[in-house]
Write a structure and sequence with these properties.
single chain; alpha/beta; Rossmann fold; six-stranded parallel beta sheet
Length: 419
């Protein structure tokens, strides 16, 4: 039986939650009421970025929201449905170049890998073609080779389509489109090329940049850098007014406190030089407080790797005894090797309902990609190139590639493909 709370206690709690709501809204209103045409918002997980986007976009007709990966576009498109067009940078750049050229330009995401393989065979060099594009090395000697192969195949890749749009806008500033509002999400994962595109858009439109330098994930994958968000937030010469959304309504109190302990310790030890100094606070909420009360602590243990499955088993047993109903557990491991070992050990301990999907990253276009291109256009050079790589021996493939034909249709031997 629930023990009734004193009236004074209930009133204090209601007042606490109301004050928390007002405090959070104060930070949002500071952004909305700012007259600056350039705003940058540092927002950690669960701090209300999407809510802010809706507020800043409402009532405007000609708006644009940009992010850098398709999965985020899908999420934002659902959240901002009917409020703003949501695009990736390469999707936006594709539209720019279609309009600029009047041609039906197409994208092939793995074109960089294809041309890298071509260079390995034709030039005997291993060249990361995305690197000069991402880092604005415009005079790099390898770009010309890339352009020739791109024209031969008739497709753009993700990096070079953004590069083409940036170069076009830099030469014809009067063609930069104007919007009532531009919103850019996840700025911490943008590279120099992508930031150049954002800076060009900011010349014609009010712009709001959002992100969190603590969540930078793509530094080693596409030359992204959290320095871009740090510079625009900390250095007023970039022309941005800086703001913060500090209240997290997603995480429990103990997680937020643990995060702040780690940040404070790492900062004192000199590991986070240059990091944007920002608050990350628990948002007082009645429903979330009940979750916090049910999960008041984190379990920390230093173990040898072979002992980790034992700890997981013990924690699962504790949860089962407490919940006494169906539940799921997420296990995150820093390496694939360790993940495999944990899965194997848990199976030996009798765990049966384990879902372990190992992601295999590969830029190699599969045969299906080549066949899909050929279904659309039987004379597609890129379709024949991708298919040949998968169907021919390496010796046959390299010999064909070295012929440097003007076009590659029907390059496969009769025995390699059914008529």
């Amino acid at each position: 039986m629930e023990v009734p709370q004193p009236i004074e206690k209930k009133a204090a709690d209601i007042n606490k939650y109301a004050l928390a709501e007002l405090e959070r809204e104060k930070h949002v209103n500071a952004i909305l009421q700012s007259t600056s045409s350039r705003k940058i918002v540092v927002a950690g997980p669960g701090t209300g970025k999407t809510y802010l986007f809706k507020r800043i976009l409402e009532g405007k007709n000609q708006t644009l929201t940009l992010t850098f990966v398709n999965s985020l576009v899908e999420d934002l498109s659902l959240d901002l449905c009917g409020i703003s067009a949501v695009k990736t940078l390469h999707g936006f750049a594709l539209g720019v170049m279609k309009k600029a050229t009047g041609k039906n330009i197409k994208l092939f995401p793995k074109l960089g890998h294809v041309i890298r393989e071509d260079a390995s065979i034709l030039l005997d060099e291993s060249i990361d073609f995305d690197y000069p594009f991402h880092n604005r090395d415009d005079e790099n000697k390898h770009i010309e080779f890339y352009k020739k192969r791109k024209d031969f195949y008739g497709y753009y890749g993700y990096a070079d389509i953004v590069f083409a749009a940036v170069k076009y806008f830099e030469k014809t500033k009067n063609k930069i489109p104007a919007f009532q509002q531009v919103v850019v999400d996840e700025l911490q994962d943008f590279n120099l090329l992508e930031v150049c595109l954002i800076d060009l858009l900011a010349e014609k439109s009010p712009i709001l940049l959002a992100g969190d330098d603590d969540q930078a994930l793509y530094e080693s994958l596409k030359s992204a850098s959290p320095q871009h968000i740090r510079q625009r937030h900390n250095d007023r010469s970039f022309g941005y007014d800086g703001f913060c959304l500090p209240y997290c309504s997603r995480c429990t109190r103990v997680i937020i406190e643990a995060f702040n302990d780690i940040i404070n310790g790492a900062s004192k030890d000199g590991y986070l030089n240059g990091r944007i100094d920002k608050a990350f606070r628990y948002f007082e909420d009645e429903k979330q407080d009940r979750v916090c009360d049910a999960n008041p602590r984190l379990i920390y243990a230093q173990l040898f790797s072979k002992q980790i499955p034992w700890l997981i088993q013990k924690c699962v047993e504790d949860v089962a005894n407490e919940v006494r109903s169906k539940f799921s557990v997420l296990i995150i491991s820093p390496t694939r090797t360790q993940s495999r070992r944990i899965v194997s050990a848990l199976k030996q301990k009798g765990f049966k309902n384990l879902l372990f999907v190992e992601k295999r990253d590969s830029d190699e276009p599969p045969l299906l990609d080549g066949l899909a291109l050929l279904l659309e256009n039987p004379n597609c050079n890129l379709g024949w190139r991708v298919s040949a790589k998968q169907l021919l021996s390496s010796t046959e493939f390299e010999a064909i590639l070295k012929r440097q034909p003007k076009s590659t249709p029907n390059l496969l031997p009769n025995s390699s493909v059914a008529k």
